[in-house]
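Margin note: ligand = zinc ion.
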Amino acid sequence: MEGFSPELAVVTHGGGEKLEEPLVVRPTSETIIGYMYSKWIKSWRDLPVLINQWGSVLRWELRTKLFLRTAEFYWQEGHTAHATEEEAREETYRMLDVYADFAIADAAIPVIKGVKSETEKFAGAQMSTSIEAMMGDKRALQSGTSHFFGQNFAKAFDIQYLDTNNTLQYCHTTSWGLSTRMIGAVIMVHGDDQGLKLPPKIAPIQVVLVPIYKNEDEKRAVMEVANKAFAELKAASIRIKMDDREEVTPGFKYNDWEMRGVPLRIEVGPKDVEKGSVALARRDVPGRDPVTGASGKSFVPQTDLAQTVSLLLSEIQESMLKRATEFRDANIHDPKDYEELKEVVKDGWALSWWCGSKECEAKVKEDTKATTRVIPFDQPDGGGKCAVCGECAEKKIYFARAY
Ligand SMILES: [Zn+2]
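Resulting structure:
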């Protein structure tokens, strides 16, 4: 756990008195979990132990960044103990897949899965895996991690079990976590100058309905249609909000909900009542794109509105993932030499051959501030020459400036 010492907050005083023993505020829960596992696990019958908990941890960060790097953060951390190395490795990869699926399918963030270098791995881990995402400013964000500890922690905390031959064995353990940092990722991958842009699957409000009228007669007719549409969508389990505030204008409401990232807006005005239609406005596509001319606004019939909206929400979800994926891929480069690598990581990622040496990794960091992000599971066949030293390299790795 040496790697953690610079990040620890140590309590020396309490209740106005110096404590006999200093208390360490936990930076992660391996120590308390390891201690309990050593008491709970006695026999092969007790295995595997799979525990997930939600909690806050504290790390002494010198420079904090809201959501991305905060001293205290809320997260979900899983800790497991297994009889065999194979099972523990399987669990490590399984949880990384769970995180990647969530990021891609729900948060519409096209993450890359892979293994961390020795330098970047979790203190005490035998292998750290992570999902890495590209933010809107092309910096990388480690968005979730899953670690295989081998027997390192089991030996440190004496987590042993009697196997079927009645022989005492050390467990193989894992831990994995995803934090409120994911919220930062959603903001930075999708957001724009107007504010948040939330993928429909995770948006607390998926649709906002704005009725438009100028007098009591219009209001009566408009609200009848609006209330009906609201009830229909709500019954179809769409998370909808009616914004019938009287004290602000429709234009104010549009801006307000755009800033809050609501994926879809429905407008109902007197003309819509006449025509039997409603207006739909997508948050992810501007009213009229000045470049492509594409319009995020459409007029649809009031009939079958729930179905129309459901389909459109799925389309928005897909389109946000596609946009983020295209952006990411357009900013991943394959530099031909070290000079070019130094250039591309200023404003993008490099996917380059790496010999695996700490020296080459440190040189890139020193020269460019870019760190190794992850050795992707997807690798090209064969090998190449290390982008830094020119020696033989078996694997490609991502270099990027990261949060
Ligand atoms: Zn090298």
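The pocket of zinc ion is lined by residues 355, 357, 360, 386, 388-389, 391 (CB under 6 Å).
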